[in-house]
């Protein structure tokens, strides 16, 4: 069977490039618009991008650490 | 009883009881028409009280309609129509019947003007939803249903105690705004919160819902938690405690969903996460926050049902529901994938979807109150929602490594219902006034400012970047995560076993004593002095001894 578009090497490369372009665009468009910050932290350039990124990294690491404590084999209660 | 019009909830309950007697095409027609009739009768009613019944010394009011209850019943009717369409051909009559009674119960709770009728329909919901879980008809769903009903009956007892105390203190059964100034209102709050999935008893939701059938969970996701949100909105707006409970639920949902492998349990945890946003909004309690909560309940019911229909279609076509077994399904189930992605974007509140215009109102309310830390936590949580539901669900089911599975898209009725909800998600996202016009308070809010749209996109897209950078850390494993249910699923049976062993030893001593007594008194042998103690007796004795111990300590 023909390989689906999503799994071709060439299209994965295209996806990577377009993702980077979109990310860059969303970040730098900030310098052309007026942001009306509600809190002073929002005045930092790219605050929302950095905050979103860091909170996700934090959440994933926290989940990973908690996982050591609470993860069990999926037949834990069946035994 | 005086009633000028059809009661939308009772209509659904009675027609639900009729479903098993109707077959074939007529059944399909019947289950599609009834929610429409219910919606029609709702919108032809005028605001105010109707349908009163004399019961003991009280006057029960079955219909108390205002813009808030109308909003909730509208979305309940839309949800039951679409979920009905989703499984109208495939589901068993038992399942559909339970689902319609359950939905009717939820509508009746929302319409109830007094605490007694509210309680009656509250318990009806608990029973019908348990039957809905059991209609998956396998051993796992039976056990999960037993745990589910135990927790909900416990919640019912707590609520009943609260209501009895409240009626005794105030001499009124009216359901209105309550103050947390007596033990009875605290009990009522606890009873409500239990159904919302609040801590410490959070585990019941992700434990029981995914054991329902592929279509049962679509119904389940809509009603129990959202009626709880509704009664909290009505009874306890502006209670500060709810902000902290809501924030806990938000982050609990994200963390546990990140750890989870089963796609339907991921979506179950994300219900708790989304209800957390609503509970937090109720705690903030300003008009903006309450509007936001009501709007978010409305949009959430729709996009969560959409996500669950997408997951349900995958389960129906492949029989699989674990991330480790799925992947690459976009190749053969493109429509299911697109609808799932629309739902995922809506839950992450992407601009142009329904989640964006509803959740923003809750965030805006925290800005209006100038509380930086709540706002920061809500923003971090929004990023986290994209992480655990927005990307994780579609990525592991429809993309990632190819699982080799090639199921087709599901039957036509399932496709239509998914497309219908996907369209509503986008329609409300583009034209927010459709929803804003039916909210309880006047809306003075514009979600689509350039600044808001851009900052939201930054927040979400860079969360997405974090997901893909951290992907090695997110490798799926064949595991479950321990939760509060460990206490009653693991610890309690072990303790019960120990107690039973002690009792058995004691029983042997008693037997020996009786036998020696018998021989010394030389009674007739026909009488049997054996005592018998089984596991269930042991359990009951165990719980009673804990209860007695508690009172001794007190």
Overview of the molecule:
The complex is a heterodimer of chains A (79) and B (554). By secondary structure, chain A is mainly alpha-helical. Chain A folds into two domains: 33 residues; 35 residues. Chain A is 56% helix and 4% strand. Chain A is flat. By secondary structure, chain B is mainly alpha-helical. Chain B has three domains: 152 residues, no CATH class; 264 residues, no CATH class; 69 residues, no CATH class. In chain B, strands 1-2 form a two-stranded antiparallel ribbon. In chain B, helix 1 runs antiparallel to helix 2, helix 3 runs antiparallel to helix 16 and helix 13 packs antiparallel against helix 15. Chain B is globular and about 95 Å long. The mean pLDDT of chain B is 91. Classes of the chains: A mainly alpha (79), B mainly alpha (554). At the A-B interface, helix 1, helix 2 and strand 1 of A face helix 10, helix 15, helix 18 and strand 3 of B.
What is the N-to-C order of secondary-structure elements of chain B (H for helix, E for strand)? HHEEHHHHHHHHHHHHHHHHEHH
Question: Beta-sheet strand percentage of chain B?
Answer: under 5%
Shape of chain A: flat
Mean pLDDT of chain B: 91
Number of distinct helices of chain A: 2
Gyration radius of chain B, rounded: 25 Å
* Helix share, percent of chain A: 55-70%
- What is the number of independent domains of chain A? 2
Number of domain modules of chain B: 3
Runs of chain B in which pLDDT lies below 50 for 5 or more consecutive residues are none
Order of helices and strands of chain A: HHE
Strand numbers in spatial order across the main sheet of chain B: 1-2
How many runs of DSSP E, i.e. beta strands of chain B? 3
Question: Low-confidence spans of chain A: pLDDT under 50, at least 5 residues?
Answer: none
Approximate shape of chain B: globular
Tally of DSSP helical segments of chain B: 20
Helicity level of chain B, as a percent range? Answer: over 70%
The Cα radius of gyration of chain A reads: 20 Å
Could you tell me the strand content of chain A as a percent range? Answer: under 5%
- Give a count of the beta strands of chain A, DSSP E runs of length 2 or more: 1
- By secondary-structure content and strand pairing, the structural class of chain A works out as mainly alpha
């Amino acid at each position: 069977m023909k390989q689906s578009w999503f799994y071709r090497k060439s299209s994965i490369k295209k996806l990577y490039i377009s993702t980077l372009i979109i990310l860059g665009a969303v970040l730098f468009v900030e310098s052309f618009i007026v942001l009306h910050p509600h809190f002073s932290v929002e005045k930092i350039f790219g605050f929302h991008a950095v905050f979103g990124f860091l909170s996700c990294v934090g959440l994933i690491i926290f989940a990973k650490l908690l996982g050591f404590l609470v993860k069990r084999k999926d037949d834990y209660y069946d035994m | 009883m005086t009633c000028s019009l059809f009661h939308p909830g009772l209509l659904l309950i009675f027609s639900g009881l009729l479903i098993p007697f109707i077959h074939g095409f007529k059944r399909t027609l019947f289950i599609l028409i009834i929610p429409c009739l219910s919606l029609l009768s709702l919108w032809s009613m005028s605001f105010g009280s109707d349908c009163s019944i004399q019961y003991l010394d009280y006057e029960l009011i079955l219909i108390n309609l205002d813009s808030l209850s109308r909003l909730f019943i509208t979305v309940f009717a839309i949800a039951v129509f679409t979920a009905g369409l989703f499984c109208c051909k495939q589901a068993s009559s038992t399942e559909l019947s339970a689902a319609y009674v359950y939905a009717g119960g939820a509508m009746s709770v929302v319409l109830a003007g007094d605490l007694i009728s509210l309680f009656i329909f509250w318990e009806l919901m608990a029973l019908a939803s348990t039957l809905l879980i059991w209609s998956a008809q396998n051993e796992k769903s039976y056990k999960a249903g037993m745990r589910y009903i135990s927790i909900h009956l416990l919640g019912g007892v707590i609520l009943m105690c609260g209501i009895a105390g409240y009626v005794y203190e105030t001499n009124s059964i009216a359901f209105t705004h309550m103050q947390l100034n007596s033990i009875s209102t605290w009990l009522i709050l606890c009873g409500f919160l239990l159904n919302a999935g609040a801590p410490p008893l959070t585990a019941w939701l992700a434990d029981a819902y995914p054991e329902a059938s592929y279509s049962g969970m679509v119904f389940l996701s809509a009603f129990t938690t959202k009626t709880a949100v509704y009664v909290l909105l009505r009874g306890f707006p502006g209670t500060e405690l709810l902000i902290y409970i809501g924030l806990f639920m938000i982050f609990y949902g994200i963390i546990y969903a990140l750890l989870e492998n089963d796609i339907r349990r991921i979506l179950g945890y994300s219900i708790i996460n989304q209800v957390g946003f609503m509970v937090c909004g109720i705690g903030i309690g300003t008009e903006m926050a309450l509007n936001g909560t009501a709007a978010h309940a409305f949009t959430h019911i729709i996009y969560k049902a959409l996500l669950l229909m997408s997951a349900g279609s995958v389960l129906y076509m492949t029989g699989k529901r674990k991330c480790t077994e799925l992947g690459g399904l976009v190749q053969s189930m493109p429509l299911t994938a697109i609808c799932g992605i629309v739902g995922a974007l809506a839950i992450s509140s992407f601009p142009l979807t329904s989640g964006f215009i509803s959740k923003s109102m809750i965030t805006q309310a925290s800005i209006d109150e100038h509380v930086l830390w709540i706002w920061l936590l809500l923003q971090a949580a929004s990023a986290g929602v994209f992480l655990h539901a927005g990307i994780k669900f579609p990525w592991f089911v429809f993309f990632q490594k190819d699982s080799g599975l090639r199921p087709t898209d599901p039957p036509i009725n399932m496709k239509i219902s998914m497309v219908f909800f996907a369209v509503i998600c986008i329609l409300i996202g583009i034209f927010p006034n459709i929803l804003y016009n039916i909210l309880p308070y006047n809306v003075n809010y514009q979600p689509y400012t350039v600044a808001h749209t851009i900052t939201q996109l930054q927040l979400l897209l860079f969360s997405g970047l974090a997901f893909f950078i951290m992907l090695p850390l997110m490798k799926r494993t064949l595991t479950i995560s321990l939760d509060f249910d460990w206490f009653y699923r693991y610890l309690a049976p072990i303790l019960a076993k120990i107690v039973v062993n002690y009792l058995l030893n004691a029983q042997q001593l008693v037997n020996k004593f009786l036998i020696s007594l018998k021989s010394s008194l030389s009674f007739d042998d026909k009488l049997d002095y054996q005592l018998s103690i089984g596991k269930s007796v042991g359990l009951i004795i165990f719980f009673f001894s804990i209860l007695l111990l508690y009172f001794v300590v007190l």
